[in-house]
């Protein structure tokens, strides 16, 4: 039995990750704004002993809502409602550093961590798009600026979380001392992007810091991850590419004084599951047949920066050199995929419909488990970001059929051992930057008394 | 039986509104960050058929945390967790317009409204304090600027909520039409404070607009309320003062084309309840004896703008003319109270310890009900903002003993009749500004066909 444990995150996305999910009989599109849908998903994922669940986000209505069930709930408000109906599973929300204030973000995640008993995680993103910028009265920021702001944003947020030391709340009713104010620290941050005095209004989160997650795979993104992130979600199409990414990212940690096991790499996988391979392929085909090409074309144009029309469908992807300020790594992935496999635009659309560039694997539970095992033991992954094509059914299939197979193989836990998200991921709880070593603390007390 | 129905809101505040609540044996200060405490309170309030519960907020740690149990959870994250364990009660969160972006706020309240099935309310505040400004890298804004920003903020937020018309989501799987994009509108707001394109990422909230609540009683505050608010929380010490405020505010509605019953006035009341009057007075005395004068002095100095020390305790409030940019109406209320009743600073502190300027009434359930009835039928209130001195016990006392008395008198509902917060408050659901009148719509269709 291997000593390494696989980590599994349920990536929740409306009624499914496949862009035609909402048209398939296994979904109900009216569930998109129904909290009970997400509560059901959270309970299913917890029943499967998954480490965490995760909600993506964007600050503008992106994609054509005429042809897809998009436009759902805001992640942080939703996660609190999921915390209330679960006990163990980690809860990861995407929040952008671009159009937010670090004081608000620190506070909301501290609250969610208290509310969930130490199960909060923050997927740190920057906002690249023009549509997002226009909802905040500004123009899209340059790539490097976004990451410079994100880095300072992180400094402020972690500084605010550290401001209340563990044990700052004393609660001594008799003496009338609620908090030891010597252990609550202002931040007095004064930087290029932010001036924040602090302290936070909320005491230290149960996890010290809610888990820090990151998903950008550009050069700046990887460097940011190596410095700050504890888990990374990534889109990888091939085992070779995933290995390269994994080694690259882990190799960057040392320059920030970090070890390889302080950051987990979780590639996305959309498992299309059938009792037989034929059944899985049939479901894949059903979804493919429901795709609306206009929707995918617009998405692909947006991803690649290449203006595409129906006339391009049966040709290869035009060879237009483009530079976008947006999600650079996803653009590269998509163009590489088209070139490597010599795909027409129509074929490429069908490859992207399942997971927007993430890997799609159709097969039996054993075949899915084989793929997971091969990547996990092959130096490509510490775990996976599970992206069911249809929800809730696809998550149920995964939990009821793939998870047991992984458990039988000794790759995945059969019970939660920890209570916090950090404990599930095997990551240490950070000490406050103000915490004094215990020995020094005792000495001071001795001198003072 | 009167046809007017009383409206009752449970104002939740840590382990109680009395500043010494955390030291009293009826509370447990460790509950301050425990979501189960607030879930228990929400269930108690719902058992009492109260219209709503409400969370105050500030964007800085205000008051001396050494001597009081302050520094709790963030309201919006907390309310989602309360929505998950309740079915009917309204959920009102305080969010400032000063250091927020309207796109975020519109989205979060739209989400909370979806999550709660139409039970969200927004207590709109502006942030006056220096401490808050310093958490956002700026200096405190001038009073008038705060309200100008708030007014434009409201325009943007309500505009975003209106952007998705009712029925914009079609969900026609066969035709492949998820939404009728002709009924989803960009906002294209371009004002002095904000430029926001829209549309929102979230479809129209179940209530159309979450309920708009306001609590400032300055001249600007009252004018803002008359224009936008549907419920107003206010601190009133005397029946005469409350009547004057009530008539003043209702009188302002006409100039915005509104009727008197489109805005409810809810003065605060902290009920100290005993089976006998003696028992109530004993509880009041117990709390008073636990007060830490240094805490109250600092609060009073902050409220009035007058620097006070222990030496001032047994003198009248110094007659220093002061102007603050902060909460002007609360300052006036406190100074008026001291002058009117000729109080020493120590006496004033004891009068403020229970409700920070809100009215405190100690007595039997019948006596509390008498006070409520007198104000309700005397042109001073449409309902009350209930501020229990200790929590959860003080809310239980109110729900189990005062509410039944109000029900017997025919003043308060015995069952919820509606499902949404607006329905509890008897307020109409606003139509989207883009909604076409049904008749005109039919005509257009006829002409077009």
From TrEMBL, chains A, B:
Keywords from the named record: Flavoprotein, FMN, Monooxygenase, Oxidoreductase
GO MF term set: monooxygenase activity; oxidoreductase activity, acting on paired donors, with incorporation or reduction of molecular oxygen
Domain of life: Bacteria
Binding, FMN: 57, 94, 143, 147, 217-218
InterPro entries xref list: Diverse_substr_monoxygenases (IPR051260), Luciferase-like_dom (IPR011251), Luciferase-like_sf (IPR036661), NTA_MOA (IPR016215)
SUPFAM superfamilies (UniProt xref): Bacterial luciferase-like
CDD domains from the UniProt entry: Nitrilotriacetate_monoxgenase
Luciferase-like domain: residues covered: 27-380
The UniProt record lists the keyword Flavoprotein: yes
Keyword Oxidoreductase: yes
Pfam families documented for this protein: Bac_luciferase
Similarity comment text for this entry: Belongs to the NtaA/SnaA/DszA monooxygenase family.
PANTHER family hit by this protein: ALKANESULFONATE MONOOXYGENASE-RELATED, C2H2 FINGER DOMAIN TRANSCRIPTION FACTOR (EUROFUNG)-RELATED
Listed name of the protein: FMN-dependent oxidoreductase (Nitrilotriacetate monooxygenase family)
Annotated organism of origin: Planomonospora venezuelensis
């Amino acid at each position: 039995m291997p000593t390494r444990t696989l980590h599994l995150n349920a990536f929740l996305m409306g009624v499914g990750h496949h862009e035609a999910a909402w048209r398939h009989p296994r979904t109900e599109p009216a569930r998109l704004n129904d909290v009970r849908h997400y509560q059901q998903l959270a309970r299913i994922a917890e029943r499967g002993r998954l480490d965490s669940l995760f909600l993506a986000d964007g600050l503008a209505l992106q994609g054509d809502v005429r042809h897809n069930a998009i436009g759902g709930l805001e992640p942080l408000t939703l996660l609190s409602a999921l915390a209330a109906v679960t006990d163990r599973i980690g809860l990861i929300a995407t929040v952008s550093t671009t159009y937010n204030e670090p004081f608000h973000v620190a506070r909301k995640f501290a609250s969610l961590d208290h509310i969930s008993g130490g199960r909060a995680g923050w997927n740190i993103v920057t906002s690249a798009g023009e549509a997002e910028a226009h909802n905040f009265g500004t123009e899209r920021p340059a790539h490097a600026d976004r990451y410079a702001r994100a880095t300072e944003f992180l400094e402020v947020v972690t500084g605010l979380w550290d401001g209340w030391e563990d044990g700052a709340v004393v609660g001594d009713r008799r003496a009338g001392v609620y908090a030891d104010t010597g252990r609550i620290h202002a931040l007095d941050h004064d930087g290029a992007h932010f001036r924040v005095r602090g302290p936070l209004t909320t005491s230290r989160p149960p996890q010290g810091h809610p888990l820090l997650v990151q998903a950008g795979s550009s050069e700046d993104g990887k460097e940011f991850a190596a410095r700050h992130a504890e888990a990374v979600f990534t889109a990888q199409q091939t085992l070779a590419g995933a290995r390269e990414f994994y080694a690259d990212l882990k190799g960057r940690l040392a320059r920030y004084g970090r070890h390889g096991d302080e950051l987990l790499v979780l590639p996305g996988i959309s498992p299309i599951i059938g009792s037989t391979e034929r059944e899985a392929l049939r479901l894949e085909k059903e979804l493919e047949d429901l795709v609306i090409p206009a929707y995918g074309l617009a998405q692909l144009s947006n991803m690649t920066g290449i203006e595409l029309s129906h006339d391009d469908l049966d040709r290869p992807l035009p060879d237009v050199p483009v530079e976008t300020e947006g999600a650079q790594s996803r653009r590269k992935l998509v163009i590489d995929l088209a070139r490597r496999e010599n795909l027409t635009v129509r074929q490429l659309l069908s490859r992207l419909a399942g997971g927007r560039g993430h890997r799609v694997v159709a097969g039996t539970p054993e075949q899915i488990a084989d793929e997971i095992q091969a990547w996990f033991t092959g130096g490509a992954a510490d775990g996976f970001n599970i992206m069911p094509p249809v929800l809730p059914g696809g998550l149920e299939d995964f939990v009821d059929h793939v998870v047991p197979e992984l458990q039988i193989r000794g790759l995945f836990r059969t019970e939660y051992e920890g209570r916090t998200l950090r404990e599930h991921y095997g990551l240490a709880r950070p000490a406050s930057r103000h915490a004094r070593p215990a020995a020094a603390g005792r000495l001071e007390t001795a001198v003072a008394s």
